[in-house]
């Protein structure tokens, strides 16, 4: 065993331990803020795994998009829906958890069997070392041009859709039928989303 | 030859992705907070990405088509997160809860 392979093994074990423990924390911890920060750790360790697979460009994209954008978006969502609420008890919750755990374990065993018994065609051709970004660019502008353009349209649609879904203004009359709008919705528009605990100071949201 | 000796077998990455995927499925079924459901979906998408990247590096080393697919999956995941959280905000504004058990508008 050379020192390079030992280093590779240590990196893989550390990254996979972070990944497994972090993902269990994401689904099991009661405090959702801890879950969100653990999710960032999971994303970062996945990026480390990509680096071990000679994919520096995708690792950078993973850090930028997942940690930089998606995780921040999730943190904002947690901040906006932070009302403490008591979840009502459900009868048979433990039974449901055990049953779904058994189903997931069965799924895991099935995937494990496929993973370990299929004769994969390894080793394939020797991987590229540092030219992966170059080759991804060539792919994106030659044989994957149509999916690339469709992805840009998809991102534009998602951006407009997110703005339309999350905006707060309610029209006084229905756009399609012209009838007066539901007054309950108009009332709800006035309640501020971020509830301020101190009554004295007016928040920015209330002024707007 | 760069560092491509591959001392770690391909199956290690696949098993790791399977663990991550099943954790995500369990969280998706059992979470009562709607934000946590979205986080579980992200976990499952990441598991799929690990599979794609492992196959791309071990089997398709000269063409790396799996990396291109991973880029597309990351794009779709970003769009999904944005729209999902916007739907969640709109739902929270109307129902004033994030409890998945109370989003039963389609139950008859």
Structural summary, described in words:
- The complex is a heterodimer of chains A (208) and B (108).
- Chain A is built from 8 helices and no strands.
- Chain A is an all-alpha fold.
- The radius of gyration of chain A is 24 Å and the shape is extended.
- Chain B is mostly helical.
- Chain B has one domain (10-97): Helix Hairpins (Orthogonal Bundle).
- In chain B, helix 1 packs antiparallel against helix 2.
- Chains A and B meet through helix 1, helix 2, helix 3, helix 4 and helix 5 of A and helix 1, helix 2 and helix 3 of B.
Offer a few descriptive terms.
heterodimer, A: 208 residues, mainly alpha, Four Helix Bundle (Hemerythrin (Met), subunit A), 8 helices, B: 108 residues, Helix Hairpins, 3 helices, 71% helix, 0% strand, elongated
User: Poorly predicted ranges of chain A (pLDDT <50, ≥5 residues)?
Assistant: 198-204
CATH third-level topology of chain B: Helix Hairpins
What would you say the CATH architecture of the domain at 8-82 in chain A is?
A: Up-down Bundle
Along the chain, the helix and strand elements of chain B come as HHH
What is the arithmetic mean of pLDDT of chain B? 89
Overall average residue pLDDT of chain A: 84
Radius of gyration of chain B, in angstroms, nearest whole number? 18 Å
How many discrete structural domains of chain B? 1
Number of strands of chain A: 0
Structural class category of chain B = mainly alpha
In whole angstroms, the N-to-C terminal distance of chain A is 66 Å
3D shape of chain A? extended
CATH architecture of chain B: Orthogonal Bundle
What pair of chains forms the biggest interface?
A-B, 92 and 84 residues
Largest sheet of chain A: none
Main sheet of chain B? none
